[in-house]
Amino acid sequence: MDTKETQFLQLIRENKGILYKICKIYQDDPDDRDDLLQEMVLQLWRAFDTFRGDSKFSSWMYRVALNTAIVFFKKQKRRPDDQPMPAQFDHADDHSAAEEKEEKLAIFYKAVQYLNKVEKALIYLYMEDQPYDDIAATLGITPLNVRVRLNRVKNKLKDIIKEMNYEY
User: Fold this and answer.
1) CA distance 12 to 29
2) What is the CA radius of gyration of the chain?
3) CA 47, CA 56: separation in Å to the nearest integer?
4) Model pTM?
5) What's 99-145 look like in SS3?
6) What is the spatial distance between Cα 99 and Cα 82, in angstroms, rounded to a whole number?
7) Is 113 helix (H, G, I), strand (E, B) or coil?
8) Which residue, among 128, 146, 126, 127, has the nearest Cα to 136 in the 3D structure?
9) Do residues 110 and 28 touch, judged by C-beta distance below 8 A?
């Protein structure tokens, strides 16, 4: 393998968590997540020559991966409104702390599926502890707008989870 391919593969390995999280947020079905992951890696490879190193690779990767996920999502023409809201999730009371955390995370990811593409990107970037200025630049909005939208999305997620008959 040449140096470019080796460098690319190393950077992908170091930052693969970013790709997995975006896939988890944008796709509910494991097969769809695999397809999206493959598409994101392909788009990252195609755009790799445009990475100049002016920012961290992970920041550049966020932008390419998020844009790929949004386009992929649009192509599927899948709308959260087309999916029935589950009446409630069954859960046993005697879960271990780790199982309970996993269950809460699954509920959260399920609720995120009901957000629009911009809201998903906003929540994802917030969860990754990105500064508001970086989130604003990525989404093309002002930092103040990030704060307002983020507050609204958090409330929307709480309402969605509540409608799912689950206290988060």
Assistant:
1) 23
2) 17
3) 15
4) 0.54
5) HHHHHHHHHHHHHHCCCCHHHHHHHHHHHCCCCHHHHHHHHCCCHHH
6) 30
7) coil
8) 146
9) yes
Residue for token pair 């989130």 = 135
Give, for all 168 residues of the chain, the pLDDT tens digit: 578 899 999 999 999 999 999 998 888 888 888 999 999 999 999 999 998 888 889 889 988 998 898 888 777 655 454 455 555 554 444 457 778 888 888 888 888 889 998 898 898 888 888 888 888 888 888 989 999 999 999 999 999 888 887 665
What is the spatial distance between Cα 103 and Cα 99, in angstroms, rounded to a whole number?
A: 6
Q: What angle do CA 76, 81, 82 make, to 5 degrees?
A: 60
Token duo for residue 120: 């998903």
Q: Which of 63, 78, 64, 66 is nearest to 31 (CA)?
A: 78
Question: pLDDT per residue over 39-77, tens digit each?
Answer: 999 999 999 999 888 888 988 998 899 889 888 877 765
